[in-house]
């Protein structure tokens, strides 16, 4: 037998033993399962998965004509004795798997019966306890709801207080802005009065300047007329 094939056989045998032990442990878990049905369904799903993996490593029913790992290895052996040994091991593992399947069915029946009995017992004798638990849960829910409402009211009160404070700050800011606008308006009115007064003074000074120019012109005209009259009398006394 080739060395690599021998290693493959040992690995395959170890995997078969591992799956077998895992299946037995899961079957025991099913026997001890206290419920509910969902837990039993989950355990059964795990058992099915392990059985599927186990079938890939051992010989299946001969009438199906399916060749898997151990059966194929048995045919590939150089020595007839090695092949027969592997075939014997394959048959042994197949019988063990059938035994596990039977134990699995029995464990399921026992677990389902126990769960059914427990549910019937709860229905017959657990009504009062159920009502007590329900009343307790209702009280707890009322207390929790009341606490939540109180907390919500306190939160709303804090928010309203913050809004009032913000409104007061806003009103104060608006009042300050209003006073500033009024002061600016008063200053603007004062500046407007000053500008009007300055304009009047400028107009008055302009009129006074025109009058002064006219008087100066008249004075110069009178001066020149007087000079001409004197010159005439001195130079032309006979005229």
TrEMBL record:
Topology with respect to the bilayer: Single-pass type IV membrane protein
Primary localisation category: endoplasmic reticulum
UniProt cross-references to InterPro entries, sorted A to Z: Sec20 (IPR005606), Sec20_C (IPR056173)
Pfam families from the UniProt entry: Sec20
Record-annotated membrane-spanning stretches: 214-231
Domain named Sec20 C-terminal: residues: 145-235
CC per GO annotation: endoplasmic reticulum membrane; SNARE complex
Signal peptide, first to last residue: none
One GO biological process term: retrograde vesicle-mediated transport, Golgi to endoplasmic reticulum
Family from the record: Belongs to the SEC20 family.
The protein's name: Sec20 C-terminal domain-containing protein
Organism from which the protein derives: Oreochromis aureus (Israeli tilapia)
Gene that specifies this protein: bnip1b
């Amino acid at each position: 037998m080739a060395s690599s094939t021998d290693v493959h056989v040992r690995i395959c045998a170890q995997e078969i033993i591992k799956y077998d032990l895992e299946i037995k442990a899961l079957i025991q878990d099913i026997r001890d399962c206290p419920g509910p049905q969902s837990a039993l369904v989950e355990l059964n799903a795990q058992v099915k998965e392990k059985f599927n993996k186990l079938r890939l490593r051992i010989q299946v029913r001969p009438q199906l004509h399916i060749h898997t790992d151990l059966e194929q290895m048995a045919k590939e052996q150089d020595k007839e004795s090695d092949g027969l040994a592997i075939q014997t091991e394959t048959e042994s593992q197949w019988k063990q798997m059938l035994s596990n399947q039977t134990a699995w069915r029995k464990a399921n029946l026992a677990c389902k019966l126990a769960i059914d009995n427990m549910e019937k017992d709860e229905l017959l004798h657990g009504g009062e306890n159920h009502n007590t638990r329900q009343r307790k849960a209702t009280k707890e829910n009322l207390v929790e709801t009341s606490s939540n409402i109180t907390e919500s009211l306190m939160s709303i009160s804090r928010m309203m207080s913050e809004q009032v404070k913000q409104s007061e700050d806003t009103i104060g800011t608006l009042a300050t802005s209003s006073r500033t606008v009024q002061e600016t308006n008063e200053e603007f009115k004062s500046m407007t009065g000053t500008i009007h007064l300055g304009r009047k003074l400028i107009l008055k000074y302009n009129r006074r300047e025109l009058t002064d120019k006219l008087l100066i012109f008249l004075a110069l005209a009178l001066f020149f007329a007087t000079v001409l009259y004197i010159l005439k009398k001195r130079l032309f006394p006979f005229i």
